[in-house]
Amino acid sequence: MAPNSSGVVSDLAPVRVWDPYVRVFHWLLVIGIAASWITGEKEWYETHYQIGLGVGWLIIFRILWGFVGSPTARFTHFIKGPGAVFGYMKTMFARKPSHAYGHNAGGGLMVIVLLLAVGIQAFTGLFNTDDVLFDGPLYDNVPESFSKLAGFVHARLFNILLALIALHVLVIALYWLWKGENLVRAMVTGRALLPKRNGPKGIGEADFASPFRALIVAAIAAVPPILIYVLN
Question: Which of 8, 70, 174, 187 has the most crowded Cβ, counting Cβ within 10 A?
């Protein structure tokens, strides 16, 4: 038994929130960003480039999945207006679980910011060069001024991306230690503890998208990275 958002005690039940495709995307992206960081620092540029293509594939998949995926994965589910975001900020530090079905308004905003940051990072890497041994696959297709701008953004944005990731981890820790809500477990198991609701269509009972749809979207998302790699 735990208090819900209105302060009334209610039973909690494990509810399906995240489909397996969102969860696989999330953890592959974590691995991809870590691998990009390591290979970039070690100056293993060919491997860094290949990982970048993989990260690009993940971002394209997630964007497409945001339109045709499972209910909680869709942008229409978690992109909220400024009023909702500010309203969330007012209650963010309250010492009680949010019991949000999917991303809350603040979490949805962070998802968009991270997708944009990682997407731009992967895109600018296509035009980057180290001026010695490695040129990005599209380096020769743009003016030198654009390549220099892309290289500048690619180098500086990664530090901003690391700061965003650190903020993301801090918020997750806040939810766990202060609000008593384990968001990591939900992203691993796909289920979150949420208050029961009355009625035949209880919370979280919306159908997830089929594996076939996820496979089709993943295949479509893979086309640009594969073409870039093959034609390079």
Answer: 70
